[in-house]
Amino acid sequence: MTGIEVKGLSEEVVERLEKRASANNRSLEDEIRHILEEAVGHDINMAERQAEFQTLARKLRAKTKGHRPSPPAEVIIRQDRDHGHRDGSCDWS
């Protein structure tokens, strides 16, 4: 395992890390390790989720290719009102 030395941390940052470590019942070293692993893991999970989203988006575009999109809501409302449904009630049967 590789060791890392971080230089130039302010006393305030070190104190905050120590308080956080104490609150989580960890040593300072364990707390810093936990923070770093969580940060890197989050980046990996985000990349995986973005890749999954792109895959699903491609599948959806392939499924709906050539389908005519629904008209915008304002067009549907205008058509409904033009047919005498001024109070918003419609007979959908």
β-strand percent reads under 5%
Average predicted local confidence, pLDDT: 86
**Shape field:** elongated
Gyration radius, in Å: 28 Å
Instruction: Please report the distance between the alpha carbons of the first and last residues.
Output: 70 Å
Oligomer designation: single chain
Characterize the main sheet.
none
How many distinct beta strands? 0
What is the helical fraction, as a range of percent?
55-70%
What is the number of helices?
Answer: 3
> Poorly predicted ranges (pLDDT <50, ≥5 residues)?
none
Helix/strand/pairing category: mainly alpha
Query: What is the string of SSEs from the N terminus onward?
Result: HHH
